[in-house]
């Protein structure tokens, strides 16, 4: 049973929050404190925050379709009809992409995004790799018995406590098999072993906190859906988790230093949140309009030696 928390304004660690903090303090400010900005105001910042991109949307749609697939497996063990499943994914791709504003269009890198050629082929490839791969038959054989205990993209942000510290680690899919708890995280982007292994540690602590399971019984896996299906798992023990908790504590404290009032999570004035000097980061940032770095992408290209 997932434990619930009363709301408090205190800052909570998450992997994406700390990654943004390390990448660019100004991006972190816009992303997490839009209401504090009096220069541009929250409405403008929310508009930019909500921009998507082609790679992001491929991941979002694949996650959405996998969520539906797992919920369907929970209802009936009837085999999945491949063609119907991929037709559903096509429809979902069109529906979801139509509703989004793409940063590539907003920043005039292209006139429009064509979901049929720019999104659908990769979504279809990712989902085909999943349903043609070994994991679904295994799931139907080994995990179906306890299907009522499956947790599929739980509501909320995945709040938990890591050694007493507020943190957020949201799992994609958690299910029991015998005495073990398995956690799956679907990826459509590039492999990043350092980042993903940190994420897996977060999932283990989340599952331990909510289910009280022994660390050695929690089996987290990153499932790469592209270019072909591949998995990476880690075995963790309580010493790994102690190290992880120490790291979360020091990362949280680093972020606290940018708070004027930690308990209320009120930020220091914006000028304390420096803009990065690295234009390669700006080239992919949704807020580049606010920093006068709309052309960061082309200046990076001009810098290239060939
Ligand atoms: S455009 Fe660059 S400096 Fe501005 S928030 Fe984004 S990454 Fe930071």
Describe this entry's structure for a reader.
With 306 residues, the chain is α+β, with helices and mostly antiparallel strands. The protein has a domain at 138-236: 2-Layer Sandwich (Alpha-Beta Plaits). It is built from 13 helices and 10 strands. It has helices at residues 15-23, 25-32, 42-49, 54-75, 82-98, 103-106, 115-118, 120-132, 135-143, 193-211, 238-256, 279-282, 296-303, and strands spanning 13-14, 151-152, 159-162, 165-168, 173-177, 180-187, 218-224, 230-233, 259-261, 266-267. The strands form 3 sheets. Strands 2-5-6-7-8 form a 5-stranded mixed β-sheet. Strands 1-4-3 form a 3-stranded mixed β-sheet. Helix 10 (193-211) links the parallel strand 6 and strand 7. Helix 4 (54-75) packs across helix 5 and helix 5 packs antiparallel against helix 8. The longest helix is centred in the first third of the chain and has 22 residues, at 54-75. The mean pLDDT is 92. Bound molecules: iron/sulfur cluster. Iron/sulfur cluster binds next to helix 2 and helix 12.
